[in-house]
Amino acid sequence: MASSGTTSNTMRFTGAQLVVHLLERQGITMVSGIPGGSILPIYDALSQSTQIRHILARHEQGAGFIAQGMARTEGKPAVCMACSGPGATNLITAIADARLDSIPLVCITGQVPASMIGTDAFQEVDTYGISIPITKHNYLVRDIAELPQVISDAFRIAQSGRPGPVWIDIPKDVQAATIELETLPEPGERAPAPAFTPESVREAAAMINAAKRPVLYLGGGVINAPQPIRDLAEKANLPTTMTLMALGMLPKAHPLSLGMLGMHGARSTNFILQEADLLIVLGARFDDRAIGKTEQFCPNAKIIHVDIDRSELGKIKQPHVAIQGDVAEVLAQLIPQIEAQPRDEWRQLVADLQREFPCAIPQESDPLSHYGLINAVAACVDDEAIITTDVGQHQMWTAQAYPLNRPRQWLTSGGLGTMGFGLPAAIGAALANPQRKVICFSGDGSLMM
Question: Could you tell me which residue ranges the Thiamine pyrophosphate enzyme TPP-binding domain spans (predicted)?
Answer without folding.
Answer: 390-449
